[in-house]
Description:
Blueprint (H helix, E strand, L loop, with lengths): L4 H7 L13 E12 L2 E10 L7 E5 L13 H8 L4 E5 L9 H17 L1 H4 L6 E6 L1 H12 L20 E5 L32 E4 L4 E4 L3 H10 L13 E6 L7 H14 L3 E6 L9 H16 L4
Parallel strand pairs: 3-4, 3-5, 5-6, 6-9, 9-10
Antiparallel strand pairs: 1-2, 2-4, 7-8
Amino acid sequence: MRRTALALALSLVWLAPSRGDEPGFDHVRDVVYGRKYGAALTMDVIRPKTGGNGLGLLFMASGGFVSSPGMIQPPIFKPFVDRGYTVFGVVHACQPRFQVDEIVADVNRASRFVHAHAKEYGVDPDRLGVYGGSAGGHLSLMLGTAGGPGDPSAADPIDRESSRVKAVACFFPPTDLLNWGGPGLERIHKTDHLPPFRAAFDYRELDPATMLWEPITDEARLREKARAVSPITHVSPDDPPTFIIHGDADELVPLQQSQTFAAKLDAAGVENSLIVRPGMGHGLPTLEPDLKLFADWFDHHLKPSK
């Protein structure tokens, strides 16, 4: 079934709206981690009241490259907070106004912010994980494969921090826009995508003569844009352990996207696990047990060895 971007985004909220903080955790909303054209970029910070394990997880609140604080609900963070994790629910600038490459920059900024404020939040900056689903899964993998060191000469101290993470877990992520569903099946034009998602790939640049944001139409440049935002392009042997769950009946993001990505990780010698859910489409009917598997993955790869 073809869903609208809004419907997909809402599907990633999953359960009923939050009715305030539940016993056992503190939920600080709308922490500003950056600004974009004067608008605030925010995250929620959810911390266990007791029993914190000193580890942090970034949750990519994103569906169809639409993001909102309403996606940061107890069902999606409580399984981790209950084990002692501090969860940073990252809200990014959205399509249709912003495109995927700009959104990737936002989540890198969010990760740098967490690194910079790790002591304040009681987490180890060298033991951070990231998780999300669909577009949030894509952004998780972009941090995992393309997160990098900070710029030591940057004027902003946040930009001097690393955006690297040490473990990734995600659901049904887009991974390769140059081989979508099969070798050589490209999605480089905005019209290659379903209408609800086209604005996310409507790449533009500022024309200094007209001072207008003009569409990029050159195919070579569009292909390079697609390559740059495809996590599979950035796979290297130093990538963090990665866990993916994907349904074999997914009509929105082909299972092939996860299979070829896992194969690329294998070839690079990166530890990974891909679980294929028979009959599952682009949704999360097994959310509760799957998030427990994610928590097990993070426990194994982030907690110090005894």
